[in-house]
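Ticket closed. Logging final result for Transcriptional regulator.
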Amino acid sequence: MTGDSCDLLCLDLPQAEEIRAGLPPLPAVETAAVGARALGDPTRLTIAAALASGHELCVCDIAWVVGHAQNLVSHHLRQLKVAGLVASRRDGRMVMYALTSRGSALVAVVLGDSVPAEG
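Final structure:
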C-alpha cells in the first residue's frame, strides 16, 4: 500500500450503500459548510462566542467585548447573518444581534468546553 489508498478493491457494498443512503442531501451539506466556513475566521468565532455568552448584544457592546472597531464587527456580523448563524432586530436606534439556534449549536460544537454556559 502506498500513501492512503488500498492496493486491493475490497468494497463492502451493502455497508457502503447503507452509509451512502444515510448521508444528508447535498443542500444540507452545503448549508452546513457555509456555517462552518463562517466560524472558521477567529474574529467571527470570537464574536459568536460573545453572543453565546451575552445572548443579545448591540454592535457597540460586541466591538468593546472583542476589542475590534465597530465597522469591522459590523462586517463580520453581516457575514454571520448571511450564513444563518446570527439574527438581528431593531430596538429604536440600536440593532441587536443574537445567535440563531443553528448558530448556537454550531458554536457549541466548534468551541466545545470553551463555550460559555447558558444562564
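The mean pLDDT is 88. No further action required.
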